[in-house]
Amino acid sequence: GVTNNVKYKTTHLVMRKVPAASYGVWTMGSPESETFYKGKPEYRTRETNHLVRLTRDYYIGVFEVTQKQYYLLTGNNTAVDEDKARDDADVLPETYLMYGGYTGYTTALGFVGKLRAKTGCSGFDVPTEAQWEFACRAGTDTALNCGHNIEPTALWSNSDVWANKVAIYSATSSGSIQPVGKMAPNAFGLYDMHGNAFEWCSDFYSDGDAYIASFGSGWTPETVVVDPTGPSSTSQNKVLRSGRFSDTAVGIRSALRGGGGMWTTPNRTYGMRVMLAVED
After folding, report:
1. Helices in the chain by DSSP H: which ranges?
2. Residue 198 near residue 270, CB atoms below 8 Å
3. What φ, ψ does residue 118 adopt, rounded to 5°?
4. Terminal CA-to-CA distance of the chain, rounded, Å?
5. Interatomic CA distance for residues 42 and 61, integer angstroms
6. Of 59, 53, 17, 24, which is closest to residue 227 (Cα–Cα)?
7. Residue 93 and residue 63: Cα distance in Å, rounded?
8. How far apart are the C-alpha atoms of 219 and 239, rounded to whole Å?
9. Would you say 182 and 201 are in contact if contact means Cβ atoms under 8 Å apart?
10. φ, ψ dihedrals at 143, nearest 5°
């Protein structure tokens, strides 16, 4: 009843428990065999394969935070006027969000701060990048969390039969952001992990050698990275995941990494999803 009950997209916040601790070791990033690397070496440096283990379960939002949810909790709506004026505005992802801080109520972390104050749960946050990717993949190791890869001819243009089932992207968005929960969920019951709005993560963004350095001193491909949180400091860029409604299929893969300035002016595609740590 989750997708059929509008309250879970407006006046309530529904989350799923992600069984990360019992899963063991999994591979974060994308394999060298993925065909989109041809002629695009920059993606290889952003998505270096590495083994990861998460030691704690956590809850994560079934949907991206919507305009209605954001407004009811913060009293603000950061979306552009065009999206605010739509008939389906209440169930559109809240966008135009800076990463920000916990006390600024027009930012992603501002929403988190309000959640913490309202519930008394200090474990609310945006997910780490590893938590986000594990939740997105839901046990898969393919480009899409439905267990399928994207056809090579569809990566940069056209549509892909499997992406069309799970993603809001250039082939399915009609050129604009879409209501949450329109496409099929992954095996964890999570929607819109591919496309629609970018989602902030708590890690500082890095790529290339700096990204590899964040895996730990002496890292090798056989090393298991435990509970990664990204580099300790870098520029003021934070990680963005999921891709967006205007991207072609290559931009909405499970491993796709992007970055944006945490205090700079955002754009229409920057949104969020909430995580709640399981208490010890």
Report:
1. 41-46, 67-74, 81-84, 108-119, 129-137, 163-166, 208-213
2. yes
3. -70, -35
4. 30
5. 31
6. 53
7. 9
8. 21
9. no
10. -65, -30
How do beta strands 50-53 and 58-61 pair?
unpaired
The predicted pLDDT at position 180 comes to 98
Task: Please name the residue that has the structure tokens 């090393």.
Answer: 223
Q: Is 65 helix (H, G, I), strand (E, B) or coil?
A: coil
- The label of the residue with tokens 């990494």 reads 257
The residues that bridge with 93 in the sheet, in sequence order, are 66
Per-10-residue mean pLDDT, the chain, length 280:
88 96 95 62 77 98 98 95 97 96 88 96 97 97 93 85 97 96 96 98 92 93 96 85 94 93 87 91
Query: Collapsing DSSP states into helix, strand and coil, what is residue 107?
Result: strand
Q: Which amino acid is at 207?
A: D
Helix (H, G, I), strand (E, B) or coil at 118: helix
Smallest CA-to-CA distance from 237 within 274, 276, 198 is with 198
Half-sphere exposure (CA, 13 Å, Cβ side) for 200?
32
Q: pTM of the full predicted structure?
A: 0.95
Q: Are 49 and 32 in contact (CB under 8 A)?
A: yes
CA atoms within 13 A on the CB side of 99: 22
* 94 DSSP 8-state letter: P
Q: Which residue has the tokens 């994207």?
A: 150
CB 48 within 8 A of CB 2: no
Q: How far, in Å, CA of 46 to CA of 41, rounded?
A: 9
Give dist(CA 141, CA 30) in Å, integer.
8
